[in-house]
Amino acid sequence: MRALMFNILALLPCCSLGAGDANVELYVESGIRHSARGVAYSLDGRLIAAGSLDRTIIVWDTDTRREVASLPNRTQSTSLAFLPGTYVVAANGEEGQVQFWDVSKRAKAFPDFQCAERPSPSIAVSQARSELLCVDAARPGHPSLGLEHAHRAPSSLQPSWT
Amino acid sequence: MSSDGNTVAVVGTDRKLRLIELPSLRPLGVLPNDFGNLDAFAFEPRLGLIGAIENGHGEVKFWTWRVDGTVGEPRSLGGALAHALAFSPIRPYLAVAQENGEIVVVDPALPKPFSQPIIRLASLGNRIEAAAMAPDSTVLAVQAWYDTQLTYDVKRGALVKAVVPRLSAANGEFQDTGTLENRPFRVKRLEDRVELLGADGRLIATMVFLDKAGAWVAVDPSGRFDTNMDLSNVNGVHWVVDGKPLSPLPLEILMRDYFEPRLIPRLLSGSTFGTARSLNQLTACSRPSRLRASRQGRHLIKSGSA
Fold first, then answer.
1. Suppose B65 and one of A140, B48, B76, B116 were both cysteines; which one would form an S-S bond, judging by CB atoms 3.0 to 4.6 Å apart?
2. How is B85-144 classified by DSSP, letter by letter?
């Protein structure tokens, strides 16, 4: 994990920063601790996400130029793409899978999607079709995943072929 | 994929770039240029921009799309060894992921774009490969990827210049245990941080070393922290509240209550601290604050109206 998060004050009662218990963390903006291997902009241009050789994804806010999140991707991502209208970033993996990270929650948004047989497939997101395109060099076609389906029924994702 | 999602581009083994319209999947055409063997490419048809990284060279090349639909000759943008590219969806800027861990946003229209980056998202640290205590328990040696080393004096709570051997399993001189004022502790290396544990396994403190910046940050489980960064202008550390990373709070907000100079020596020697004010107390007498970020990257705190 690159930039690291210390959970420094767990479960502090909070009255004005939000309902329930406040969780305050000290975040050290270390940047990528290895080699940067993939990069993507969010569609509003605010965020940049980058995959690293050390198997994390680092996210920066381009307005403030501050690092805002380190995502424990656990696989090197060379191809990344944000989903339309969200801060969910899709990231390819070394075993042909795609992971979906919600940057605002620093958590997986959907289950992983196995889109290719070969490692590190190229991926792209179609805003017009609300689809994730995934290039599997081992197959003649490109499997695509309907993102609307991903939002509605993440447990039953099935690729369609185009 | 273009940022508007209306066009997909594919560079095949024939080194030609094919454009396909979405959602119709109608082929728009094949650009006649030889794009070479590419490791990565990005394109932005609305702005008429194509960027690519040639296979094996890591060099960023850049093309512009002419009004007549043809593509001009490539221009080398220079820069360090690159692995990936992305165009900004809102400005004619190109983000480049580099071997050295940096993400550099450049304006390809400039004569030397990498010497005048729009944004440089720096890499300040390397992965920690080893961490151990010197035999006399004074120096914590931290070895990062590519053999950079930092040495931290646990008695002084500061980085020191010390020549230490390369840490390895074969080097038995350095150990993962130490003592300070007869209190034993243990050093645990993780890839991005070092934990200092008590004899009972309890976490005493966590330390982050940013070896490229010569900086470190230490924090204990109650939130007290120490750092050698310039506290009047700390840009590399902030607070995250309620798990909301996109609304960071500047370090200054809670600094008075949680900054503890010489934190590590005091913790390792068993010093006790007063109770830090809780976040509840810090916010109960004040109106809620909202963090706003200006485009100059400076944070402005503004009282809310809730």
1. B48
2. EEE-SSSS-EEEEETTS-EEEE-TTSSSGGGS-SEEE------EEEEEE-TTS-EEEEEE
* CB-closest option in A30, A38, A105 to B208: A30
Identify which of B131, B145, B262 has the alpha carbon closest to the alpha carbon of residue B195: B131
**Mean predicted confidence (pLDDT) in B264-281:** 80
- Give the number of residues written for chain B: 306
In angstroms, rounded to a whole number, what is the distance separating the alpha carbons of residues A20 and B200?
Answer: 32
- What is the per-residue pLDDT across A112-148, written as a single tens digit (0 to 9) for each? 988 888 888 888 887 666 678 887 766 655 556 565 5
CATH fourth-level superfamily of B7-121? YVTN repeat-like/Quinoprotein amine dehydrogenase (2.130.10.10)
d(CA A90, CA A157): 14
Mean pLDDT of the B48-76 span: 82
| Range with lowest mean pLDDT among A142-151, B45-54, B124-133 | A142-151
Could you give the CA distance from residue A116 to residue B217 in angstroms, rounded to a whole number?
41
The CATH superfamily assigned to A33-161 is YVTN repeat-like/Quinoprotein amine dehydrogenase (2.130.10.10)
The ipTM is: 0.85
Alpha-carbon gap: A154 to the closest alpha carbon of chain B (Å) = 22
pLDDT value of position B277: 65
Global pTM reads 0.84
Residue B261: both structure tokens together = 């100079």
Task: Name chain B contacts of A59, Cβ cutoff 8 Å.
Answer: 245
Q: pLDDT band for B227, please (50, 70, 90 cuts).
A: very high
